[in-house]
Amino acid sequence: MTLKVYLSGEIHTDWREQIVEGAKGLDASFNSPVTDHAASDDCGVAILGEEPNKYWHDHKGAMVNAIRTRKGIEDADVVVVRFGDKYKQWNAAFDAGYAAALGKSLIILHGPDHQHALKEVDATALAVAEEPHQVVEILRYVLTGALPA
Amino acid sequence: MTLKVYLSGEIHTDWREQIVEGAKGLDASFNSPVTDHAASDDCGVAILGEEPNKYWHDHKGAMVNAIRTRKGIEDADVVVVRFGDKYKQWNAAFDAGYAAALGKSLIILHGPDHQHALKEVDATALAVAEEPHQVVEILRYVLTGALPA
Amino acid sequence: MTLKVYLSGEIHTDWREQIVEGAKGLDASFNSPVTDHAASDDCGVAILGEEPNKYWHDHKGAMVNAIRTRKGIEDADVVVVRFGDKYKQWNAAFDAGYAAALGKSLIILHGPDHQHALKEVDATALAVAEEPHQVVEILRYVLTGALPA
Amino acid sequence: MTLKVYLSGEIHTDWREQIVEGAKGLDASFNSPVTDHAASDDCGVAILGEEPNKYWHDHKGAMVNAIRTRKGIEDADVVVVRFGDKYKQWNAAFDAGYAAALGKSLIILHGPDHQHALKEVDATALAVAEEPHQVVEILRYVLTGALPA
Amino acid sequence: MTLKVYLSGEIHTDWREQIVEGAKGLDASFNSPVTDHAASDDCGVAILGEEPNKYWHDHKGAMVNAIRTRKGIEDADVVVVRFGDKYKQWNAAFDAGYAAALGKSLIILHGPDHQHALKEVDATALAVAEEPHQVVEILRYVLTGALPA
Amino acid sequence: MTLKVYLSGEIHTDWREQIVEGAKGLDASFNSPVTDHAASDDCGVAILGEEPNKYWHDHKGAMVNAIRTRKGIEDADVVVVRFGDKYKQWNAAFDAGYAAALGKSLIILHGPDHQHALKEVDATALAVAEEPHQVVEILRYVLTGALPA
Amino acid sequence: MTLKVYLSGEIHTDWREQIVEGAKGLDASFNSPVTDHAASDDCGVAILGEEPNKYWHDHKGAMVNAIRTRKGIEDADVVVVRFGDKYKQWNAAFDAGYAAALGKSLIILHGPDHQHALKEVDATALAVAEEPHQVVEILRYVLTGALPA
Amino acid sequence: MTLKVYLSGEIHTDWREQIVEGAKGLDASFNSPVTDHAASDDCGVAILGEEPNKYWHDHKGAMVNAIRTRKGIEDADVVVVRFGDKYKQWNAAFDAGYAAALGKSLIILHGPDHQHALKEVDATALAVAEEPHQVVEILRYVLTGALPA
What we know:
homooctamer, 17% strand, alpha/beta, Rossmann fold, 5 strands
């Protein structure tokens, strides 16, 4: 059993690297959005032409990014969504809703401060974790049956 | 053609009432989550028993609310999601993602300040409006072909 | 919003009547399997011809009952599954699994003694209740937003 | 043609090993839940944090196990569900219902004593066997056309 | 609960009338293909223009009939397929396969002579009957719980 | 049996009126896009705000029109697509492809000059007609079994 | 592009071998039912135990065969269904209907005598051929673009 | 992540070769219709027998081509549809509609002259490009996160 895992959400810390590193040796493959903030914002106009209006600038980029995001979520068995401490992060919550409607197994990752604000999102998850190593432990258990020592 | 419209998101202003009132006479039906904040927070424990832990208190309520929310979104032709000025509103973004994955026609309603933060959400919508009366005008046009005078 | 509710499981107490009675005045419709135990066991051979072998006797009846059960679950918005104190009740758990895979909102109803044995089933539910009146209160809240006094 | 087989249900005898051993040389791959009873019960709290309330202890574990179970059933061509002599085994019946709703080919494996109690479950199966070697023989026939000597 | 029933297959006896008549008073609605043999054969060319080649003559008619047949089967809860004593009746078997793939509840109706030839079709049905009155009795039982006196 | 019919395509002749008029008395309901060319082009900017760039002007309108078009096609049993003598009419062919992928029964309506250019589209249809009255005759036959006199 | 092809229907001539042989070198894989008539008839009772009643003897076998048949059809891109000169061959027509409902590309293979009787089945096919070599030529064209010399 | 890309539409320029060439080294696979115009027109009659009527000649070919086209689109993650300067190109628009209904990520490729005529098609796309190299740049960005220098 290979688990396909999509890592959605917060892009300003190294939580994805921690999970990928921790999961070495497990039969899991990882996918994620483009996490280079500038590239992600500008990809639409850089490729398809400038837009003077910021709204359409953003729109063109969001559409191009959706090609990767949808593919990543639709191919995944497990979607991990990380909410960081800052920013609105509505795209993270959007991905969680998208994944939930497709019946994906959701793992939500956030600190205790966000519990009340994320209660509807957490309620659709199969696991709510605070730290990346817990996600690794879940993947290890799911794939091998082994619990943390 | 009857349009079934689900009104998701912000619950602290009267935008739902404005839309329902403005759409009088149109062949549209409206549905929405429970918008009584206290009831929505406490429904789980009020019916199914107290929880000393706030996380499970919230969880039980979010699950009961999901019975209504899922039904509302799954039955809808059009899902309108309103983002207000305050709070995280992750459940609004979650609903948008859920509706998008089900192929619903999305209308996103928010002020100009949120444009950049909502770019991924807006990019999945068929219309992005700033004011409730614009939603009414869309519904009127879709149902009757009439544009605003 | 009309909620279509399917009442699956235990057939030896009046829990269905309590829910239907309690929900009077709510915009809910109810459906259930044939709850006459003898008719349910014998319907296959009574209509389609005797079987000397008890296995095929049972089989024929289970197939005919499935016409009603599948229709009831597939049409439902909410599936309530009641586990009583006695018997194996594997068909109740089967219905819960069937409903879960179809994405129905599940309410599981059972006494505290069955908590551990039903943990996988409960984990797929949006509400786990002990008493029929709690199901009524959930339906009332979901349909009207009103909590128990 | 490779057959993907999921082995659900009873975890106290070596029926899974018998099938996997017997099917050596056939183009079949096998998957199953975590069958270490203690790990399966405790995985939620071991990874995600203790719960003083036994219900939530169980709930957290059941959710984590569901990541593996759903993946296993959804990927499978054939789902074998074994009912042993003891315990409620509601999760086995739940898996059977879940698999049936997804249109999987079901093989139910149980002793003659459970025939009446399992009649609804058996009625959705493509084969009802009493012994693990019969499952092997079915897989051999399906994959190669060879019947038992 | 209203049962939508599609009556497919043999068109040279009055079995449809017997079922519709027998089911009077039950909450069932019936649909069927056009049973006027000549109209059914010629509808394509009568409306869309003559074809000198008999193959395309037949083809045009079969396509027009498919508008009705598909709608009837897709809308149905229960599909009854009757095999008579004569002719190839491949369209009946085709309809059975089509309905089976859509997950419809199938009732197959045929005399004992066809048992072996129809074994694959019968194996997908929830009931195999010999006489139209048995179909009525199934519908009555499914809708009301009443068995034949 | 009520047939829901969506009338897509050419908007410069009265073919829709001819079909609706001709089908009076039949159990059919009709839906169509907004056929007021100017309103259809300008609906986006009229409701949601001006766009200096013609591309986004068009885009906004096309998105709003999609709310009606998708609903119309998704609700339909039969989708009639008319190709007129002029213009590119790519939206007509797009609607045909959209409807085909959803498994709708397609009727294509066009003059003999377009046969070669429309061969791929015609090949997915259940009927290819040249005149609106033929569509009426198909609907009458499908609903009542009556052929043209 | 690899084409997965399922070869359904008549089992008394070597048409499958002709197609598989002719398609050597093409990127196509083939699957089929068990074509050993005796094994196919007896597989159920040979593995799962004798049945004195011929109906249940047949039923058990048909169910076991369905494990292979369903998998073969559901995995296929193209389903070829061959109708021979003899027998009822209802299972062939059933497979065609099953495949059609799943949206598979159908190729029907039969002699000219069966044209009228198979008109509904042919009308759902993308190709109707008379000889196995034509199926090979279709596969070659679809995979390589090369037409017969 | 491997992206499966289907290249639909215009067949008279080398845009497909430009994209495939430009994408060398990327983890993308490409598929397309048969682009030999004569073979594509005649494949039906060349394999399945002559038709004196041009309509059926075209029809037979369109059906055979559909085996490849459907497979290509259904397998794809991304569907690129190119509209050239000439011809009706209704099959290109049909493919776009078919792909849109299946939820594929669409990239539309056309010159500025077609903007108004393609507005409904463009409105369903995630990117609208004018030149083949832009499609390559999108694929590179989606697969690697790298923007054009």
